[in-house]
Amino acid sequence: MTVIRQDDFIDSVADALQFISYYHPLDFVKAVHEAYEREQNPAARDAMAQILINSRMCAQGHRPICQDTGIVTVFLKIGMDVKWDAELSVADMVNEGVRRAYTNPDNVLRASILEDPAGARKNTKDNTPAVIHMEVVKGDTVDVQVAAKGGGSENKSKLAMLNPSDSIVDWVVKTIPTMGAGWCPPGMLGIGIGGTAEKAAVMAKESLMDPIDIHELRERGPSNRVEELRLEIMEEVNKLGIGAQGLGGLTTVMDVKIMDYPTHAASLPVAMIPNCAATRHAHFVLDGSGPALQTPPDINDWPDITWEVGENVRRVNLDTVTREEAAQWQPGDTLLLSGKMLTGRDAAHKKMKELIESGEGLPAEVDLKGRFIYYVGPVDPVRDEVMGPAGPTTATRMDKFTDFILEHTGLLGMIGKAERGPMGVEAIKKHRAVYLMAVGGAAYLVSKAITSARVVAFPEMGMEAIYEFEVKDMPVSVAVDANGTSVHEIGPKIWQAKIAEQAIDVV
After folding, report:
1. Do the bridges between strand 131-137 and strand 71-79 make them parallel or antiparallel, or are there none, so unpaired?
2. DSSP H helical segments within 208-340, as ranges?
3. Which part of the chain is CATH 3.20.130.10?
4. Closest CA to 506 of 277, 243, 184
5. What DSSP designation does 369 have?
6. pLDDT tens figures, 432-489
7. What is the DSSP string of 39-55?
8. What is the sign of the dihedral through the CA atoms of 237, 241, 242 and 245?
9. The CATH number of 314-491 is which of 3.30.420.40, 2.30.30.240, 3.20.130.10, 2.60.120.260?
10. Other beta carbons less than 10 A from residue 469's beta carbon
11. Closest to 404 measured CA to CA, from 349, 366, 361, 364
12. What CA–CA distance (Å, rounded) separates 311 from 260?
């Protein structure tokens, strides 16, 4: 009988979570690099270059790939012949591992988990509790898979109860465009088919623990219906031309994973969960010999990619930029921002709206007139950092506030991740504002452009407080111009047409 010690289990969980915060799986790095080399859309290619550069920087600096260090999901397969030398429950040991990982002073990870989700939404401060799935199996080991899932991609999860005669491929192809780019493509799709609604969702998540191997499958050919579906879905999704960060291009997904389970004769449950450009997962097995610690990869396995400033890049001084100047920017233009900006996410926008409506007004240091606001919840700095990883959050969550904020503050522009919804685009057009997009999945790279940072309002909100950042040459793209033209609307349409017309190999 194998004896698993409490400290060995906790240490292994904590080590895995620290490891995946700064090391991409090498199969993912290779897949992004292959997509980068094939890509024909310069904007999508630049986005993937930033993702690869950021990945290498994080591997070298041991800092998070993304500022959203995720909600922890754990899959446990516990052998029936295992004996525990522990005082805590298995769930409590997992959560202690999460707690130690996320509060590690050498690499503090962002605490994003809120308790009382339908009420006070109070931060638990240490990213606990994890979502834990346990299964008792034959054997004398404990098999553990851990993942850290960002909110941007998790929020795009889809579940449908199809009719048995419905096409799963058609449902996926119809659904993917409704997800926008907030899940930070290029990534992976996890699909669960069968069982019941909750079983399909769990299978979709678990399928994403596997390495990227679609190219090997294509070379040897499918041997069953699930493998046929993987190839069909990947080809049809990439034909949509959504591309990296939704900018249009050849690669939207790099693999499709599927798990299935017997289901009721009247049912066809299908769940789909995307993994983003910050794919993070690790696997280890405890056999009683001590903690199972991760083995660092060789940094030479990362491609040596550089991102060059092109001739057409505009340099923008945020401290002097005018509305007339911003009105000249075109969708897809690359800008390098320097100067001061404010930050604000959902909670800050809600608070600002409440203060304005109450007549109290905004704090003196939150003067938005003629300024830019960056949708970000950064990681706390460590050592000599000005700020920890500080990539953009999904901009559509702020759409409900956009018209009000633009109307009452004179805000000139916003910076975030992915597209704006119809409500947000209409408000931008109405007020002749602009929306700029930073690359999701390049948080550490973005943080290096921040030269100073200070909290100016709502410190009690933690990572959702309003900061003032000063930046130097922060790269962004014009995603919605002052006329309301969105690059996320025109880019994928252009590339979908090009793929169809030229029969470009998209896989």
Report:
1. parallel
2. 214-220, 225-238, 323-326
3. 314-491
4. 243
5. T
6. 999 999 998 899 999 999 999 999 999 999 889 999 999 999 999 999 999 999 999 9
7. ---HHHHHHHHHHHHHH
8. positive
9. 3.20.130.10
10. 26
11. 349
12. 50
What separation in angstroms does the CA of 338 have from each of 319, 332, 344, 374? 8, 19, 18, 13
Q: Residue 416's beta-bridge partner residues?
A: 437
Please identify which residue in the block is written with the tokens 């990572």.
463
Name residues whose C-beta falls within 8 Å of residue 262's C-beta, 6 or more positions apart in sequence: 194, 195
What does the alpha-carbon distance between residue 238 and residue 187 come to, in Å, rounded to a whole number?
11
Cα separation, 67 vs 430, whole angstroms: 32
pTM of the model: 0.93
Q: What share of the chain is helix, strand, coil (3-state, %, to 5)?
A: 35, 25, 40
Q: Quick check: helix, strand or coil at residue 466?
A: strand
Residue at 439: amino acid letter: V
Q: How far is CA 114 from CA 119, 120, 180, in A?
A: 10, 9, 25
Three-state secondary structure call for residue 199: helix
Q: Report the alpha-carbon distance of residue 193 to residue 191 in Å, rounded.
A: 7
The C-alpha atoms of residue 77 and residue 336 are separated, in whole angstroms, by 49
Amino acid present at 254: M
Q: SS3 letters for 203-214?
A: HHHHHCCCCCCH
pLDDT of amino acid 277: 87
